[in-house]
Input
Amino acid sequence: MSRYAANMEVVEPGISRLRGIALYELQDPIVMLANKDFEGGEITVRDLLSKLREAEGYLREAISQLIYEPMNSPEGHLARVAMQDLKNLRYSIQHAEKLVSETETRKSSTGSIGSAKKRGGGRKKKT
Output
């Protein structure tokens, strides 16, 4: 949890409309910057996954704060938007997890091929 979010817990303990709004606003730039940094090659897929999971935590907490607001209020509308954002974020997390898995699979298969060549394994030359 970020220092900002921890401070919000002290300032606005319990169920708080303002805390929900702040947490929702906090997660959005985390996701945008993580995606931008990953696309620019500045962070690895593992770093991307970590940041997306951090944002997921903030978004889940925001929803838990906003869910009690009347549905026809701006905060109630924000709760519905946050739920849809959480669904989309979970899809992105699943995609990132798949990329991590594929990366690890490629590394392990490349490592075993390389070690077989070093030991003299692999194809034999025709003589």
User: Anything to note?
Assistant: The chain has one domain: 3-100. The chain has four helices and no strands. The domain at 3-100 is CATH 1.20.58 (Methane Monooxygenase Hydroxylase; Chain G, domain 1).
